[in-house]
Amino acid sequence: MTSEKGARVIECLYYECLLIEVVGRHCQVRNAAGSIQLSLWVIARGDFFFRWTFLNIRIIKCVNRMRDSEKGPVIGMRHMQALLLFLAIVVNYTARLSVSVAIVAMTDAATTNLDFPEYNWNGAQQSYILSSFYWGYIVTQFPAGFLVRRFGAKAVLLVPTLATAVLSGLTPYCVAWGGWQAFCTIRIVEGLFQGLIFPCIHEHLAKWSPPEDRNRLGAFAYSGADCGSVLAMASSGLIANGSMGWPGIFYVSAGTCGLWCLLWVLLGANNAPSSRLIGSREREHIERSMKRQDGFHAQKIPIPWRAIWSSSPFYALLVVRSAQGWANSTMQLQTPSYMHGVLEMDIKSNALYSALPFLAMWGMSYVYLVFADVAMSRQWMSLTTLRKSINTVSYWGPAAALIGIGFLDKSQTTLAIALMTINAGLNAGSGIGSILTIIDMSPNHSGMLMAIVNGIGNIFPLLTPLLVGVIVTESDSRSQWQIVFAMTAVVFFIGNLVYLIWGTTDQQAWDAEDYLQAKDPESEPNAQQMDFKSRTDSEAKAEVKAE
């Protein structure tokens, strides 16, 4: 009898291993729990339940390890590309945002280093300087989408970072020669170049991040904005107080941008097949994962403009990202002025405390990332629900905090800084909430869509410094700053509400390869998906060719 039971166990083991081999090799064991449940149902009829269960779970773990090994190394070139994108955002954000601290030092040398010139710029002129970056920034967003499709992210992303390095190094000399007008000109040109960056980032992520890694790689890369904000706010005040003075802020930015360019030339690659440093297993995994998606294709398919501009989820993205642009410009550019005017902080304390909200944002971005990974791996909710839930926390939470900030004065400095830190920390979720929805909806056109969304969204950062300059005529007026913060809270609320109603992560029909009957040179068109006009045209061309 014992031998019969042993034979039964061996027979079950054989069929179970065969099942796992088939599922593991051909389906990538997308849900190992299903295999375990099936095994327990078969085993429950035998006598060696516990021993068999233990053995079966070990088999499942071996298959999962085999599946994971097919992805290549734990830290591979796709992670290196995400790190390079992270650093690209860090150095460019530092160069962009350090001006908000530098301008305080340039107009109030008594609080920093007296060895360097001081400029008597009024509030309106300072607002022009802060907003002028976005005058150029929005112009190149749309062309960036075409450029990155034509030349690839490696070449296009190198140009703006190298230009930022040169322009940052020239800024002190240009300001000494031409005053605030020359400063505005430098910022406009810098904005023109940096407008190319985020469409490149999105396109590069779409090429390098398999679906299961998209949350991690995307959130990590975009957390560079928070890290860059921290460095810009914290380091700028320290540099301005040091021997280099406020010109040192621009020299340090120039050096870091130049160093990144060197790393990018050596390690960057447009996609996995073009990388000289990637291993064969990782390259095959990335290619297999991308081809498994309906929306990934090596060819550049035509852009369905009419369908995009008639898509309600696309308009929801425009609204929600525009709200983020408004809020970012208010918090990033106006925080030092608010702390200097209302809270009466000196430039060094101002810079350090201004960095706290962005430090919280940087740290919270990883908290959101871990939560998103756990939620998706355990299937707590759909991807759309996950993105909307995180985005709601990251928009409506800060809206409430902003209203509270407006009622505080210099006697409540600690509470004001705490609320600003909470505001920024909660807002970190937008990196996983709405911004990655662009790749979810349209991996084929993610670079172009990012160019449109970022271009329109950054019209508001162009306008908000000017609007703040009109509203805040006295920098120490709490009531005037209340209006600024209340307006930002309303924008936050409306932006997320629109996203909740019309936003989605579903891949759109217009992202399909054959939506405009694009012809793939490596495959035959699907005749069942062609309309009558397309069939007629194809037949006519075939007859002409035959004649």
Give the key terms.
547 residues; mainly alpha; 74% helix; disordered C terminus; single chain; ion transport; 0% strand; Growth Hormone, Chain: A
Structure in words:
This protein folds into three domains: 68 residues, no CATH class; 399 residues, Growth Hormone, Chain: A; 29 residues. Helix content is 74%, strand content 0%. The protein is an all-alpha fold. α7 runs antiparallel to α8, α13 crosses α18 and α13 packs parallel to α19. The radius of gyration is 27 Å and the shape is globular. This is Putative inorganic phosphate cotransporter. It is found in: Membrane. Belongs to the major facilitator superfamily. Sodium/anion cotransporter family. One of its GO terms (molecular function) is symporter activity.
Instruction: Summarize the main sheet.
Output: none
Radius of gyration: 27 Å
Helix content: over 70%
Dominant shape: globular
Query: How many domains, in number, for the residues?
Result: 3
Span of the ends, CA to CA:
80 Å
The CATH topology of the largest domain is given as Growth Hormone, Chain: A
Order of helices and strands: HHHHHHHHHHHHHHHHHHHHH
Mean pLDDT: 76
User: Helix count, per DSSP?
Assistant: 21
Measured by DSSP, the beta-strand proportion falls in under 5%
Low-confidence stretches: 18-69, 292-297, 518-547
CATH class of the largest domain: Mainly Alpha
Number of strands: 0
